[in-house]
Design brief:
This is MFS transporter. The chain is 79% helix and 0% strand. By secondary structure, the chain is mainly alpha-helical.
Length: 380
């Protein structure tokens, strides 16, 4: 059971490790402008606005989550193959929109499958989910090393084995009995979403993902412009994920010693500092390493807190919809807007300007959070 559940996490995040650090470099090598690169990279986030809600609804209504995961895995792999047709900009945009729509369907559904399969043994979830981080780090390092030997144009070919791994592992997922979810009380979701504390929570996370737009779109290009090779770029990306893993292992201690509000505000300030470090001190490796270690704050701490907020505010009836809103409004809408805004800043000024834009977004997030964030209610 352990390996059958952890297998898909490994391959899913391995693909993310092969895409995020290097896809923008691939697009640059294909001759696309910075605005076109930003638009294409934004599609990875853009489909998160719709995909989690659509696939989550289908999973809840049919109870056939395993079949839907397999459909997403196979269909995503098939549609990604459109990259090999050498489409123009609009063609590639369509390929990425369709591919990511199916790919972004996998994880939300699989999280439910994993937790239900574990049952009373949910304390083992961390050990299973850890293999996703292992897959990400391994793919970043391996693809980076291979790209030192071959041209960036071969990146889609390097990703093919990972797609095969996702497709195969989806058929190793334990089957579950079809179970339809009981409908939630009418109108109650609206009353939850319109709470001032919930609005503040979503605004904070939206701005957080806007600030990450430059990182996920232009960090690799920024490093390459400052003389870093493909392997070094990959290792710096991996360092951020390693820091994230380390924080997850000790996060429970921070929750015992500090309030949620204090953790969030500290993480937001550290995130703002991170973007300034990357913008101004890229050539100073020691400072860049510190900036990457701060990924533990900008993603790890804030995601761990957000899981508690969703669980507390949305409760049992709306947990799935709360997760879909969190993914769509923050990672989806915020991430896409951040990618596009960073594209304008890079096109008009420089990659450093895009990271300064992220720092400004974080300053606004700090002000919004200081004014309106409240602790999540006790689990109900």
């Amino acid at each position: 059971m352990y390996w059958r559940l952890s297998n898909l996490y490994f391959w899913f995040f391995a693909l993310l490790g092969g895409l995020l650090p290097y896809w923008s470099l691939y697009l640059e090598g294909q001759g696309y402008s910075y605005l076109q690169i930003a638009t294409l990279m934004a599609t990875i986030q853009l489909t998160k606005i719709v995909a989690p809600s659509v696939w989550g609804y289908l999973g809840d209504r049919t109870g056939q989550r395993v079949r839907l995961v397999r459909l997403g895995a196979v269909s995503g792999s098939v549609f990604f193959a459109g990259v090999f047709l050498d489409p123009e900009f609009l063609g590639l945009l369509l390929v990425m929109l369709v591919f990511t729509f199916f790919w972004n369907a996998i994880l939300p559904l699989y999280e439910v499958i994993t937790l239900r399969a574990l049952g009373e043994r949910r304390d083992k979830y961390g050990r299973i989910r850890l293999w996703g981080s292992v897959g990400f780090i391994g793919a970043v390092a391996l693809v980076g090393a291979l790209l030192e030997q071959v041209r960036i144009q071969y990146l889609p070919w390097l990703l093919l084995p990972v797609f095969a791994g996702i497709a195969v592992s989806s058929f190793l997922v334990p089957s579950e009995k079809g179970e339809r979810q009981a409908p939630a009380p009418r109108g109650s979701l609206k009353s939850v979403v319109l709470q001032p504390a919930v609005i503040t929570f979503f605004a904070m996370n939206f701005l957080l993902q806007v600030s990450h737009g430059a990182y996920y779109t232009f960090f690799s290009i920024h490093l390459e412009q400052h003389g870093y090779g493909k392997l070094a770029i990959g290792l710096l990306w991996s360092l951020g994920v390693i820091a994230e893993i380390g924080l997850f292992l000790v996060m429970h201690r921070f929750f015992r010693r500090f309030s949620v509000r204090a953790i969030v505000l500290c993480a937001l300030v550290l995130t703002m500092m991170r973007w300034v470090m990357i913008a101004e001190f890229t050539t100073v490796l020691s400072i860049l390493i510190v900036a990457q270690l701060l990924h533990a704050a900008s993603y790890g701490a804030l995601h761990a807190v957000s899981v508690q907020y969703i669980h507390g505010f949305f409760g049992r009836h709306h947990h799935g919809q709360g997760q879909a809103l969190y993914s769509g409004l923050t990672f989806g809408a915020g991430g896409a807007l951040g990618a596009w805004m960073s594209g304008f800043l890079v096109d008009g000024f420089s990659t450093s300007a895009a990271f300064w834009g992220g720092a400004v977004a974080m300053a606004i997030a700090i002000a919004v959070t200081w004014r309106g964030l409240q602790p999540p209610p006790v689990h109900r």
